[in-house]
Amino acid sequence: MKKKQKEESYYDDPSLPEELLYLDDPERLIREGDDTPDTPKKRRQNWMNRNMSFMMGALALMLVLGVLLYTLFLQSGPDYIVGLVTSYTMPEPGRKQLEELLASYADDRNGDGRVMVKLQTYTFVPGTTDQAQREESLLDLQVSLISDECMIFLQDKGALHEVAGEMDGKLQYTDGTAMPQGAKDFEKALIPWGDCKALSAFQPDESRLNLWDPQIYLELCQSLNVTLRGAAGTILADPDVSAYHAASAAFVERLKSGEKP
Length: 261
Hints:
Blueprint: E1 20-22, E2 29-31, H1 40-74, E3 80-86, H2 92-103, E4 117-123, H3 131-147, E5 150-155, H4 157-162, E6 191-192, H5 197-200, H6 214-222, E7 225-228, H7 234-237, H8 239-257
Parallel strand pairs: 3-4, 3-5
Antiparallel strand pairs: 1-2, 5-7, 6-7
């Protein structure tokens, strides 16, 4: 009697790689050694392994977007914008040091948890041939005066002479009264650098001046005078602007006394 020939099965297929094994389900192959049951926990783990890179990238993107949204919408602008009106070009490293000096005597006016003072520069070099630059500075100054963004100015006498027409009726005398339209006695509106204890004690950081001579830079600063906008016109008409002016006046008093908030 002939012995019954053994029935071939998929297990005996010589074309299959040796490192692959069939499970009870002939439709599924797994790597040798991965013979654990196909449980829901294992499927979740496999999904995590396959998608980990994607999830990490998504998390990084969310962090970047969060920082951007915080910067754009939750942080306010500077607490004070101070106009720097000069007859020379203030070096950028020096401007930053001045901003830090002023910020140490300012208050957190907008309540965003930080104190920031921005110096807005306007350069008017007497006798300059660069009329385009002069016109640009003049336009920026006019916009600043119209918008009331600057209540405090640091300016040297040479630049003040150049912009006397724009400053006509815009400043305040040191006795607290507003200069009338057409007045020419700007000297009575100037608070010299040396009369402000907070400013006169300033010593520049030479290491941050990018080869600028610290003595020359200090002399440029000492040529500046503090001036305050006069409380008149649109400043009194708008409660928010009026509050900004009052805070700026208090800021100037701290510069004079050297007392920090």
